[in-house]
């Protein structure tokens, strides 16, 4: 693999590792290194960028921690722009999470209907079972690769006319804020390991039973819970990382 890479400029005030990191990110962002590309080894990158191996390791670690690279023991380092890494973060939508990682978000509404709240949904939204909720079911993608299926439930009385909007819903949070003045203030999430259902498998382009993260999220504003979402995220394209310290 041959690529033109911007060498570091030692006359600039930015640290060498930062310049190296930005050069690597640039090759990923502009498509020079597409998803699945194997990077040159550390020695070659050091030569290409004009920095030491220690500097390269620092830059590679930062890009890897942001979810854009994966290291495979005995094989090397690969680009993985279609993977979302979840970790300590602020209260953001999937759309913003994808944008923060330099991915092009995709969203397709599969279903938007009003229906009675099940006991599970009612308990999460702190409403009575049977009350009307709006269900928004969407296929979420990054860089044209299917990532997951999200089923969001919202009390219908808070979003009158939502099912009749007749427009795409790439970011539900942006729509709720613009049309109904609903803005998230806090959320609780639960992650568990599960499997892709037979219904979701064709949409996610995997076999039924494939590993997945099942993510439950309850989002609230000043009036209380306004959204309960259950997401099935592909296990090979979504991961969770935490940084622990004493």
From TrEMBL:
Q: Which InterPro entries match?
A: Bact_HTH_transcr_reg (IPR050679), Chorismate_lyase_/UTRA_dom_sf (IPR028978), Tscrpt_reg_HTH_GntR (IPR000524), UTRA (IPR011663), WH-like_DNA-bd_sf (IPR036388), WH_DNA-bd_sf (IPR036390)
- Tell me where in this chain the HTH gntR-type domain is found: 14-82
Matches recorded under CDD domains: WHTH_GntR (cd07377)
Q: Which residues form a coiled coil?
A: none
Protein keywords: DNA-binding, Transcription, Transcription regulation
Query: Does Iron count among this protein's keywords?
Result: no
Q: Name one Pfam family in it.
A: UTRA
Lineage top rank: taxon: Bacteria
Matching Gene3D superfamilies, A to Z?
Chorismate lyase-like, Winged helix-like DNA-binding domain superfamily/Winged helix DNA-binding domain
**What start and end residues bound the annotated signal peptide?**
none
Name the PANTHER family for this protein. MANNOSYL-D-GLYCERATE TRANSPORT/METABOLISM SYSTEM REPRESSOR MNGR-RELATED, MANNOSYL-D-GLYCERATE TRANSPORT_METABOLISM SYSTEM REPRESSOR MNGR-RELATED
Record protein name field: GntR family transcriptional regulator
Q: Which organism is it from?
A: Mesorhizobium marinum
The taxonomy runs:
Bacteria, Pseudomonadati, Pseudomonadota, Alphaproteobacteria, Hyphomicrobiales
């Amino acid at each position: 693999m041959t690529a033109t890479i911007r060498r570091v400029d030692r006359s600039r005030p930015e640290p060498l590792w930062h310049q190296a990191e930005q050069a690597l990110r640039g090759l990923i962002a502009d498509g020079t290194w597409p998803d699945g590309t194997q990077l040159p080894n550390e020695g070659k990158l050091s030569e290409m960028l004009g920095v030491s191996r220690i500097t390269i390791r620092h830059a590679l670690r930062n890009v890897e921690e942001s979810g854009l690279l994966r290291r495979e023991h005995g094989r090397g380092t690969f680009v993985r722009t279609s993977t979302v890494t979840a970790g300590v973060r602020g209260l953001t939508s999937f759309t913003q999470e994808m944008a923060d990682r330099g991915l092009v978000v995709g969203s397709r509404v599969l279903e938007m209907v009003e229906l009675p709240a099940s006991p599970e949904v009612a308990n999460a939204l702190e409403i009575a079972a049977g009350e009307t909720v709006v269900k928004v079911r969407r296929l979420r993608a990054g860089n044209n690769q299917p990532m997951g299926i999200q089923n969001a439930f919202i009390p219908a009385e808070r979003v009158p006319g939502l099912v009749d909007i007749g427009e795409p819903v790439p970011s539900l949070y942006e729509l709720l804020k613009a049309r109904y003045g609903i803005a998230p203030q806090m959320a609780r999430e639960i992650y568990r390991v599960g499997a892709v259902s037979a219904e979701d498998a064709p949409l996610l382009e995997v076999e039924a039973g494939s590993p997945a993260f099942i993510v439950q999220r309850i989002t609230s504003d000043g009036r209380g819970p306004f959204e309960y979402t259950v997401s099935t995220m592909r296990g090979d394209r979504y991961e969770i990382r935490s940084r622990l310290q004493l």
